[in-house]
Amino acid sequence: MRKVIVGTRESNLAVTQTKWVINELKKKEVPYNFEVKYISTKGDRNQQVSLSKVGGAGIFIQDIEEALHKKEIDFAVHSLKDLQAHLPAEFVIGAIPKREDHRDAYIGRGQKNLADLPDGAVIGTSSARRAAQIKAKFPHLKTRWIRGAVDARIKQLEEGKFDGIILAVAGLKRLGITDVITEYLPAKEFTPAAGQGALAIECRNDDVEIKKLLTKINDPESEIAIKTEREFVNRLDQEDKAPIGAYAHVENGEIILYTSVASIDGDKIITCTSKGESIQAVAEYAVNNLISQGAKEMIQAAKEELSKE
């Protein structure tokens, strides 16, 4: 019986997600033994600066892909939104399991709602997109970057370093701590990052056996939705460093894509809803619509602002 080695980051959430994937495969009664290999990533080793300063897309992926390249692991479990737009040719997403909740969650100290916070209250987030959306909806609030694992961020909130924080609902659900959520933020106003709530199982392109194994836990509708979101982001901004939101779902065979681009200060947010049956056509319509509203200029300005931070 082949032993399959699964690579993951060391955080509690990453390990929880990896164990969930292994359990889902075991439910299929596959003839394999599984072993978990914990890997430290650049993003995890640099907790003292904002994500944009650490290096952007791929900071939680590169060290794991190196282990995959060296055949130290057979596949890796990632939060899909951490994946860069283009994978190296030697790797492939072998499966996208059924997506968890795509929304963002607001966690307020003392369970205070966002709208009830006083002027100058500070919201912690590591995302330029979330910060811009908060500033746009609640201009009386301030945002400050926060890093660390989910439990570490919640602890910083409890210690009084922030009045509230924004986290992905999916991670909180997987960790079983949804009781901390004060508000679920609607996707139409707080459009999530492309791939949020989904997992990506990455393997070597030439490992036919593992690729066949992973198809057993692939969810076709989640795959279509994620591919649409990634196609949109890739067409609009391959670097994926600006405050861009994208969320798609499949409804009665039709793809519905919500998208947004925001200025860093939140003064301007442009949106587009695109519908259709083709991933490429739905993504292209959204891109062209947003460009006509000034998306390219906003993205460039956002990147320049982020580089100064």
Write up this protein.
- A five-stranded mixed β-sheet has the order 2-1-3-10-4, sandwiched between helices.
- Strand 6, helix 5 (128-137) and strand 7 (142-144) form a beta-alpha-beta unit.
- It contains eleven helices and 13 strands.
- It folds into three domains: 2-97 and 197-218, D-Maltodextrin-Binding Protein, domain 2 (3-Layer(aba) Sandwich); 104-185, 3-Layer(aba) Sandwich (D-Maltodextrin-Binding Protein, domain 2); 232-308, Double Stranded RNA Binding Domain (2-Layer Sandwich).
- The protein is globular, with a radius of gyration of 19 Å.
- With 309 residues, it is an alpha/beta fold.
- The model has no long low-confidence stretch (mean pLDDT 92).
